[in-house]
Each structure stands twice: as structure tokens, then as C-alpha cells.
Design a protein that fits this description.
Number of domains: 1
Radius of gyration: 14 Å
Distance between the termini: 36 Å
Strand content: 15-25%
Helix content: 10-25%
Shape: globular
Number of strands: 5
Largest sheet: 5 strands, antiparallel
CATH superfamily: HIT-like
Oligomer: single chain
Bound molecules: 2'-deoxyguanosine-5'-monophosphate
CATH architecture: 2-Layer Sandwich
Order of helices and strands: HEEEHHEE
Length: 120
């Protein structure tokens, strides 16, 4: 697991390095397509990033592979069930002006606490 073709990897990308285990992360799930690990700066009691192993810039690019997008969403659901009560908020920041800072697509899974009362 973790051997990604050169075409699917950006040598300067921090999440590609996490996928390759060159940078440590608190991994909570992995399969042959997707990994999930805890966000370094959690914004909720449960805050996990679900990351396709292949380097894709954002959810616009990921949507060109509907099966991989669906896998990402179903892993988000599994993580929320395994580590929380199953309810979750799923966010793809897409583009710098929407808050994206790491340009390797990732779904934020946020759960727990008072999410229901918070505005978007
Ligand atoms: P975004 O702003 O949507 O691009 O989210 C990037 C998230 O990635 C942000 O919440 C912090 C997290 N992050 C950045 N670098 C690292 C890292 O090296 N390890 C982990 N676990 N999270 C990181």
C-alpha cells in the first residue's frame, strides 16, 4: 500500500508526503485509494481529513473520478461512525479565497460538540 505512480504524486505536496509516510500523521483509516488522519489544528472534537492517495488539486478535479469521490464520502461516513456518533459535517475548501491552503484534495470531517448550533 502507498506506492503511487509518479503521475499521481506531486513531489512538493505535503499530503503526498503524508500518504507516502514520509511525514508522520495520526492515521485513523487507510485503504488502497484513500487515507484519513487527524487534522493538526482541530476545529471540532472530531476533525479528520480524508485524502485520496492520488494527487488531485481539489474537489473539482476529484469529481472527474466519481468513484474516488464516492469512496472519499463513504470513508468520511465510516470515520464519523467509528470515532463518533455517526453525524458529521463534510467540507471541501476549494480555492484560496474559500480557505484552501493545502492543494491536495481533502475532505474535512467535523463532528461532536455544538456543530448543530453553529452557522456555516
Ligand atoms: P484547508 O485549509 O481546507 O486546505 O485545510 C488544510 C488542513 O490541513 C488544515 O486544517 C490544517 C491541516 N494540515 C496542514 N498541514 C498538516 C500536517 O502536516 N498534518 C496534519 N495532520 N494536518 C495538516
Amino acid at each position: 500500500m502507498g506506492n503511487i505512480a509518479a503521475d499521481d504524486r506531486d513531489p512538493d505536496c505535503i499530503f503526498c508526503k503524508i500518504v507516502a509516510e514520509e511525514i508522520p500523521s495520526d492515521r485513523v483509516y487507510e485503504d488502497d485509494q484513500v487515507i484519513a488522519f487527524r487534522d493538526l489544528h482541530p476545529k471540532a472534537p472530531l476533525h479528520v481529513l480524508v485524502v485520496p492517495r492520488r494527487h488531485r488539486r481539489d474537489v473539482r478535479e476529484l469529481a472527474e473520478q466519481p468513484e474516488l469521490l464516492a469512496r472519499t464520502a463513504s470513508v468520511a461516513s465510516k470515520v464519523a461512525s467509528d470515532l463518533g456518533d455517526g453525524d458529521f459535517r463534510l467540507i471541501f475548501n476549494t480555492g484560496a479565497s474559500a480557505g484552501q491552503t493545502v492543494f491536495h484534495v481533502h475532505a474535512h470531517v467535523l463532528a461532536g460538540g455544538s456543530l448543530a448550533e453553529e452557522e456555516m
